[in-house]
Amino acid sequence: MSTTTATDIAVAMRGITKAFPGVVANDHVDLEVRAGEIHALVGENGAGKSTLMNILYGLIHPDSGEILINGAPVKIGGPRDAIATGIGMVHQHFMLIPVFTVGENIMLGREPVVAGGIYDTAKARRDIQEMTRKYGLALDPDARTGDLPVGLQQRVEIVKVLYRGAGILILDEPTGVLTPQETNELFVVLRDLVKAGKTIIFISHKLREVLEISDRITVMRRGKVVGHLITKDTNQAEIATAMVGRAVLLRVEKKPAKPGAVSFRVENLTALSDRGVQALKGVSFELRQGEILGIAGVEGNGQSELVEVLAGTRKVSGGKVWLGDKDVTTYNARDEREAGIAHIPEDRRGAGLVLNYSIAENLILGRQRANSFAWHHILLLLDAIRKWAQRLVKEFDIRTPSIDVPARALSGGNQQKIIVAREMASQPRVLLASQPTRGVDIGAIEFIHRRIVAERDGGAAVLLVSAELDEVRSLSDRIAVMYEGRIVSIEPADASEDRLGLLMLGGTAQKT
Amino acid sequence: MSVITDILQLLLTANLWQVALVSAVLLLLPALGGVISERSGVVNIAMEGMMLTGAFFAVWADLIWHSPWIAVLVAMVAGGLMALIHAVVSIRFRADQIVSGIAINIFAAGLTVFLVRAIYGLQDVGHVVPAEALPNWDVPVLSAIPFIGQVVFQQNVVVYIALILLVVVEIVLFRTRLGLRIRAVGEHPQAADTAGLNVYLIRYGAVITSGLLSGLAGAFLAIGVSNTFVPNMTDGRGYIALAAMIFGKWTPRGAFVACIIFGLGEAIYANNSTIHVSQYLLSMLPYLITLVVLAGLVGRSTPPAADGIPYAAGSE
Q1: What is the pLDDT of residues A349-407, one digit of tens each?
Q2: Distance between A87 CA and the closest CA of chain B, angstroms
Q3: The domain A262-504 is classified under which CATH number: 3.30.160.250, 3.40.50.1000, 3.40.50.970, 3.40.50.300?
Q4: pTM, rounded to two decimals
Q5: Fewer Cβ atoms within 10 Å of its own Cβ: the N or the C terminal residue of chain A?
Q6: pLDDT digits (tens, 9 = 90+) for A15-37
Q7: Domains plus CATH for chain B?
Q8: Subunit contact B191:A119, Cβ cutoff 8 A
Q9: CA A446 to chain centre
Q10: Residue B197 to chain A, least CA–CA distance (Å)
Q11: A20 beta partners
Q12: Gap between the Cα atoms of B306 and B315, Å rounded
């Protein structure tokens, strides 16, 4: 993919140390990136990857250590310095202004102007067209950025970085929001950039992608570098072990499902999205006890609305939902809960937790009126709540200094475990799990996957929605593919990734 | 019915529109300041206090130097200093911008009353009368145009300045590099920061500019319109300017339309002798229009995405 000589070191970071109150985010970290390579930086959340890259980009100042770019020591006081040194960063959460045009976003900070500081739209347009020709990255400079699909927004970010003359590109978790097809397109772009002489640092925790795209790998764990690997000589298991510090099961271990009676039935369901467009255009499926039905689809094809309708937080415009022989179509969230439907919402911080509440309080959310936690629905029984919380924290391995700290203080993975614990502890008949492992570490993913399978084996009916096709494929017993508000096909668990990918993009089911 | 015909008749007189434009300009200047400040992401409800401070110091400076132009400069500096307090509190210390704004308004009311007593020894309803007022100026030729001439071109100099500023702010915000950067900082400060912009500098500049404009409005009120300083003479204009800014969807031209509507309400009240209805009812008109406009007509107007959210570099 690229030829490198060992002598050309584009980026050398030596002895980088950065301490935040209570935690050493980077502890004498060394990183060497060769010119013209794709260098993967891997590690779990909180391993210090982002801190290291933010230091390289000047957003964070290290306590000690030195940085050499192309062999020369540099001092990076802020993003301005980084840009001037030829470093560009594509952030995980895009640094784009949705209401600005593509051109304005790309130009921001280096805007072409005519007399009097008037912004030169025509020149901006020409410059972008030239970039497009040079790198083959097609973009409409006049489109409103917020209206573009995520893959194109990422392209805007890349062009923005290239426009600033970056020779070294940092990509922070670039595939986290992309579909498999978009990821493949991105990889084509990255390889072209390397051919054009760019150096790329690729941050990821998706090992398959790291193996596919990188030349060399640096592994971080708890603020330290724990391994330098050469991609062609390593494998997923070795990287995962280095990341987590112990052997990790990458495959979900599960026995074949023993589906029981139909417990949840959805008939011809329709609903509107927040913007008032038809998000569900007649969805029907059956969910049996003891099985996991996975929903695959590009985000925004009605999955979110489907789960919200089933959880009682969105109004139905037509169709029926049956739980056993009960019609639960018009149930609100509280009725649904009381009927035995548990819900792990996709928006962990917005819908799953009250971030400023303590862990104990979050663990009883939705059940605060139950007799076991409240005297006559009025007075909270604090002792009972504490005991309950302590039990769940232990059982679900929620890593926290105490049950009294606010949920905000925990890492994403541990926040997610709070929700998983709360929802599973209610022994649901139906579990709606939406993006249950988004932004969660490998270790915690393994744990959450095991618990979901355990729920299934305990007789619950599980509906799993995930943007991660790998997750859907490894957990599900059957896979329903959603496209534009409809289930276009229900596939067996061993359907190929290519076939699912095709269905997700609206292709018809012809061949297997 | 006669009340309505009275008002309709009034609306046909150039006098009414001439007065309305003056009232509108008193709102437009702080509203422009608000637009600039909030476009950069700092909520500013302190225009009332900054305007009041400007009004006092205009009169104070006018009495010392006998020059309305020096008075205007002093008033703008005074408004700018009040804005600086708001900027430091809300940008440097990341405090709640609403609370900071309220504090400044209360502080300005107290400060000006205190200064009136301390410097001029006046009690309760003290009037301080300035030495020289800001002049009126009839624009040659144009002021002879029927109707329009009287309304637009026979005005105080500050009215012309304000109308020019309206155009300037509109162009700067939406056509220039500076404006793009101000709006970027107000929409997504992290994005602006990573693009190499200085978020803090831009926000300080925008907030202080809002103070300069409010101070100018205060000077116009005290030494151009009323020719006196009375405690609390701004009479809620800073807040109505805030409403005008929101009604105008955070754009200068939108705010201007709103200011004209509010200005008409005030002008109709000022002409209450020709309308056969209680003047107290008429005096409610500007405020009533504000409420109606905010509740119903605006609908959902979207403020800049990062409006009111303090920015801390390096936090994602």
Answers
A1: 888 899 899 999 999 998 888 888 988 888 999 999 999 999 999 998 888 888 999 99
A2: 11
A3: 3.40.50.300
A4: 0.80
A5: C
A6: 999 998 777 889 999 999 999 99
A7: 2-133+140-297 (1.10.3470)
A8: no
A9: 15
A10: 6
A11: A23
A12: 14
